[in-house]
Amino acid sequence: MRTLGIVAAGLVAVIVVAFAVHVSAYDQWSCAPAVRAMGLASKSSAGDMQCELEKLDIAGLPPSELYALGNDYMQRKKPNMSLVLWEEGWRKGHGPSARAIGEMLDPNLWGTQPSAFTKPNAQDSRKWYERAVKNGDVSAQARLAALPAQ
User: Which segments of 76-121 does DSSP mark as H helices, in order?
Assistant: First the structure.
C-alpha cells in the first residue's frame, strides 16, 4: 500500500510539472518574446497588449484602419495600444497617425487625453507633427505652430 501511495504522489508531481511546463511554454512562445522586444514595463499588461496585436494582424491593415483602431483604443483608455497602431500607420505613410502621436506628447494638450508617455515633450511632439505635415496632414501645421519655441 505504501508503494502505491508513493507512485500516486509521483504521478501527481509529474502531472503538475507537465502542466507548469505547458503553461510556461504557451506564455513564452505566444506573447512574451514580443513583449520583451517592445521593452514594456508591465509584463502582464504588455502581454495582454501583445496578444491583442497578434489577433489584429496589424501588418496587413491599411493605414487608415490602423488610425481608426488607434482612436478606438484611445476611447477605451488604452493609449499604449493606440501608440503601437499609430506608429505602424505612420510607417505606412499616414499623416494623421503621426499627428496623433504628436498630440500625445504635446505640452499644450497634456492632461486632456490619455497618453502612452509619462510626460509631455515639445521637441518630440514637434518631430511627430513635422512627420505628419510631410505625410499630408495639414491640421498638424497648426499644432506645430502652437508649440513653444525651442
Answer: 79-91, 95-105
* pTM of this structure: 0.68
- 133 contacts: CB under 8 Å, gap ≥ 6: 95, 140, 141, 144
CATH number listed for the domain at residues 61-146: 1.25.40
Show Cβ contacts of residue 81 under 8 Å, excluding neighbours closer than 6 positions.
49, 52, 53, 70, 73
- Quote the crossing angle between the two packed helices 95-105 and 139-146, to the nearest 10°: 20
CA angle at 111 for the pair 38 and 131, rounded to the nearest 5°: 55
For residue 110, what is the DSSP state?
T
Up-side HSE of residue 107: CA atoms within 13 Å toward CB? 11
- Give the pLDDT confidence of 27-82 residue by residue, as tens digits: 433 444 443 344 443 444 556 666 776 777 788 899 999 999 999 999 999 999 99
Q: Determine contact, residues 145/130, Cβ cutoff 8 Å.
A: no
C-alpha–C-alpha distance, residues 122 and 135, integer Å: 20
The domain segmentation of the chain, as residue ranges, is 1-30, 61-146
